Amino acid sequence: MSGVVAILQGGATVIRAISQFGAVEGMRLFGDDLWWMFIRPVARISALADRISLGQLDTPGFRIRSRDEIRTLADSLARLRKSLVQAMKMLEA
Predict the structure, then answer these.
(1) How far apart (Å, rounded) are the C-alpha atoms in residues 88 and 13?
(2) Gyration radius of the chain over CA positions
(3) What does the alpha-carbon distance between residue 53 and residue 49 come to, in Å, rounded to a whole number?
(4) Which of 37, 39, 54, 90 is the most buried (most CB within 10 A)?
(5) pLDDT digits (tens, 9 = 90+) for 10-37
(6) Half-sphere exposure of 27 (CA within 13 A, CB side)
(7) pTM higher than 0.70, yes or no?
């Protein structure tokens, strides 16, 4: 539900931007919101997952500040990496 609230708040930002700056500027701000809220974090998670899949388990992670599905995905990937490290240690022993 928090993701829906964030999207709705982003929508309110777009409406204010369109009314204050005009439609073209408002749509640019909306694109920036999409970049920071969705595209950038998902791209970072994707890059991290790719490195982990190539066996780079010591790749540093990162924290997502939001409290939405993107953070849940990042936390799940961090747990997966931790589990993989533990499994590899068990196999080596």
Answers:
(1) 47
(2) 18
(3) 6
(4) 37
(5) 444 444 544 555 555 555 656 778 888 8
(6) 2
(7) no
